Amino acid sequence: MVAKKSKSSYKIQNIVATASLGKPVPLTKLARTQPNTEYNPETFPGLVLRVKEPKSAVLVFSSGNLVCTGTKSTVQVKKVIQEVIKQLRKINVNITAKPKITVQNIVASGTIELKLNLNFLALEMENTEYEPEQFPGLVYKLIEPNATFLLFSNGKLVCTGTKNKAQLEDSMTQLLKNVKQALKNY
Questions:
Q1: Mind spelling out the 3-state secondary structure of the chain?
Q2: Same domain? 62 vs 96
Q3: What's the whole-model pTM score?
């Protein structure tokens, strides 16, 4: 039943990264002068700054902390942070220190080239949740490296929780190994 050559592939869909600019940002002034912003301090303390290329959104807080979402690589994250710094220069906020960027989460989609019996996997594998009446995917939590997978019967998957490409690749390898191990009993 299990093909010996089954493999997995994935594509990074989103990277969430944080950075600190090391100085306060006047959000009201930024919102007034930059058209690509949304700021409603009554409902949320951060300003949303949209960047066209690479397409992303950055939460900017008055403390100078940033949360960048929507990018697909760390190179793109760096470009987006540079774009934010460029826009801040327009309102006379000069960032001199190079911001330290920390990847918080990578979301990837992919496939393992197997048809999956999710009911069987839910029984055979540890750290799973499967309620097909609620959601058609099986939730599988990997402890080392820390990753959470949504697995679907057609072999498609979503992986979240890793912080770098090595962790992502390691978790995909681990997933494939664990699924193959479980399917030996099928």
A1: CCCCCCCEEEEEEEEEEEEECCCCCCHHHHHHHCCCEEECCCCCCCEEEEECCCCEEEEECCCCEEEEEEECCHHHHHHHHHHHHHHHHCCCCCCCCCCCEEEEEEEEEEEECCCCCHHHHHHHCCCEECCCCCCCCEEEEECCCCEEEEECCCCEEEEEEECCHHHHHHHHHHHHHHHHHHHCCC
A2: yes
A3: 0.89
On whether both 79 and 43 belong to a single domain, the answer is yes
Residue 6 lies in a domain: no
**Region 73-100 average pLDDT:** 94
CB 114 within 8 A of CB 6: yes
Given 103, 126, 141, the domain boundary residue is 103
Q: Is the bond preceding 145 in cis, omega lying within 30 degrees of 0?
A: yes
What pLDDT, on a 0 to 100 scale, did the predictor assign at position 9? 87
End position of a domain, from candidates 103, 122, 155: 103
Residue 96: count other Cβ atoms within 10 Å of its Cβ. 8
Domain count, the chain: 2
pLDDT tens-digit readout, 74-84: 999 999 999 99
Asked whether residue 95 falls in the same domain as residue 129, the answer is no
